[in-house]
Amino acid sequence: MPRCRCHCCEGCSGGGGGGGSPGGEAEGGRGRGPSMKSLLLSRFLVLLPWMLLVIVMLDTGGSPRAPRPPPASSRQPLSQPPQHPGAPRRREAELPVIYTITPTYSRPVQKAELTRLANTFRQVARLHWVLVEDSAVGTELVSRFVAGLLRSGGPPCTHLHALTPRRFKRPGQPRATEQRNAGLAWVRQRHQRLPAPQPGVVFFADDDNTYSLELFQEMRTTHKVSVWPVGLAGGRRYERPVVEKGKVVGWYTGWRAGRPFPIDMAGFAVSLQVILSNPKAIFRRHGSQPGMQESDFLRQITTVEELEPKANNCTKVLVWHTRTEKVNLSNEPKYHLDSVKIEV
Which of the residues are catalytic? Predict the structure, then answer.
């Protein structure tokens, strides 16, 4: 009887199934069992984590990697000590003190101009403001102004007063002589009580000028007497010392060029040591003419050849003799009519 070749008989367990050949059983086994490709993939997935672990350990040498050094641009020199939070304060404390002597007098714009000046000075490190009133006593307005300045964290401020005699208030007389001399006397007396001379600079800053912060950086390195241009002075856009090869050789000025020092009061600063070494150097009232006080004072302590040009060899204007426009109070009543009294 011929053998059946249908697939249904090869795999069945019936009577015809017992006569199936062994080859048919082998073929059915290959169809149900896993393929070689699947077997290799499963073994690869088992070994993959161990292979990655070996690679990582070989790359690191079996120990944590040392941190990379910072870029060369951010490295500090070997001689520079590490920065400390207190270092900026220590450096600031080593700066020479700038004693700024400011004469002031009662007028409608006085408080406004003092406020403007205070907002500049509070941004200057190591500045001591010597504010001198032209008054027999300290006025309430300036006293309150100074107290508010100190409460708000402003610069140290010393409030003085020195009255200009009536006979010297005529037109044509030098102004603010007594006030500047009172400021100089205070600076000298202060340093008589200190244990040792300290580096510093003395600067005469009128309250109607405008000052760049850069000016105070320039003057702080004064060795004897430093000079620079002043804007809006002498009837010109600016006045300045003329400098050649680092020395003052002349003056660009529009008023009385023949003066020994044709310079504005805001155009120079004096070393504290020079002030202390010349105790008789003051602003002279007798024999002095308007516009000559700078020359009269500087002739007592220096010469033109010794002047130190600042502000890029006296080619930059860092202070302006602005002055304030005269206030129009034509509508102000003769007697106070408002229900409250306001300080302006």
Answer: 294
Cα 197 to Cα 43, 110, 270, distances in angstroms: 87, 34, 15
For the sheet with 247-252, list strands across it.
Answer: 210-211, 319-320, 230-231, 238-244, 247-252
pLDDT at 90: 62
pLDDT (tens digit per residue) in 246-268 = 999 999 998 888 999 999 999 99
d(CA 267, CA 250): 14
DSSP string, 163-177: PPPGGG-STTS--SH
Q: Confidence class of residue 119 from pLDDT cuts 50, 70 and 90?
A: very high
pLDDT digits (tens, 9 = 90+) for 22-44: 444 444 444 445 577 777 777 77
Token look-up 């002279």 returns: 284
In angstroms, rounded to a whole number, what is the distance separating the alpha carbons of residues 126 and 93?
A: 7
- pTM for the model: 0.73
H helical segments located in the chain: 7-10, 22-32, 36-60, 87-93, 110-121, 140-151, 177-193, 213-219, 272-277, 293-298, 311-314
